[in-house]
């Protein structure tokens, strides 16, 4: 029975991954979320017959919570893990519509937002990978997938002149580099670390955008 851990499974893309992957009852699917009971209610409401879904609680910025989550995952799977999908992430609203030069006019807010993006999207995922790689090494498929963004692709930014989402993109570039470093270390042990971009998906981030902001986007 292939096993999956999906972070950020409470909503958006993570919820959809949980839904799709658990539709095959042979898959054991573990969603990591910040509010367990809330997501369990949602699961009960939509897929009450899917006994292959498990919900584990962890804020990925909380290292101790990740250690606890790892133990819970190991107890569910019997010790190994086939796929880790690092989907949880912060999508900044602060940088969504303005270029970096405009963001810099609010230096403190910019620093705060970049620090938050970095903490969640980069540092927390590094902790996640370090803690969960021993389980992946015991799994059969050995795949770690980071949900990153084409916004961080250094060839695309100048080609298309993408001015917006600078802070988010910087953090995703950091994530991509971390993934490459994990790959460099663990490829020889058969682990595939990979960053992918899901494309642009409407998950409600721009619900309160003005018409002008949407045009820009
Ligand atoms: N949507 C797009 O167009 C798009 C495009 C490219 C890449 N991506 C990437 O795809 C991933 C999912 O995007 P999305 O649009 O589904 O985002 P979303 O709707 O904002 O969902 C983000 C998820 O991450 C979780 N999360 C955030 N901070 C967390 C933390 N500290 N600890 C644990 N979980 C945390 C959220 O949990 P809570 O419910 O507890 O807040 C939520 O489940 C992100 O990494 C994003 O950067 C999205």
Overview of this structure, please?
By secondary structure, the chain is an alpha/beta fold. The protein has a single domain (3-216), classed as 3-Layer(aba) Sandwich (Rossmann fold). It is built from eight helices and six strands, in the order E-H-E-H-E-H-E-H-H-E-H-H-E-H. It has a six-stranded parallel sheet with strand order 3-2-1-4-5-6, sandwiched between helices. Helix 1 (12-22) links the parallel strand 1 and strand 2. Helix 3 runs parallel beside helix 5 (107-138) and helix 5 runs parallel beside helix 7 (166-186). The termini are far apart. The mean pLDDT is 96. It binds NADP nicotinamide-adenine-dinucleotide phosphate. The site of NADP nicotinamide-adenine-dinucleotide phosphate has 24 residues, from helix 1. Pfam families: adh_short (PF00106). One of its GO terms (molecular function) is oxidoreductase activity, acting on the CH-OH group of donors, NAD or NADP as acceptor. This is NAD(P)-binding protein.
């Amino acid at each position: 029975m292939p096993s999956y851990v999906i972070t950020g499974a409470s909503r958006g893309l993570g919820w959809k991954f949980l839904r799709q992957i658990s539709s095959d009852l042979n898959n054991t699917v573990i969603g990591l979320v910040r509010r367990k009971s809330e997501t369990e209610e949602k699961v009960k409401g939509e897929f009450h017959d899917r006994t292959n879904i498990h919900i584990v609680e962890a804020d990925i910025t909380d290292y101790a919570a990740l250690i606890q989550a790892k133990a819970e995952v190991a107890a569910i799977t019997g010790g190994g893990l086939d796929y880790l999908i690092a989907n949880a992430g912060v999508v900044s609203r602060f940088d969504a519509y303005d270029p970096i030069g405009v963001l810099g006019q609010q230096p403190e807010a910019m620093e705060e937002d970049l620090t938050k993006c970095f903490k969640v999207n980069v540092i927390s995922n590094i902790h996640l990978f370090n803690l969960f790689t021993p389980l992946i090494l015991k799994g059969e498929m050995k795949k770690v997938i980071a949900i990153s963004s084409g916004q961080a692709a250094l060839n695309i930014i100048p080609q298309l002149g993408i001015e917006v989402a600078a802070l988010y993109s910087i953090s995703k570039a950091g994530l991509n580099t971390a993934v490459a470093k994990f790959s460099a270390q663990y490829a020889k042990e058969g682990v595939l670390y990979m960053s992918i971009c899901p494309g642009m998906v409407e998950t409600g981030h721009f619900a309160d955008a003005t018409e002008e902001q949407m045009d820009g986007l």
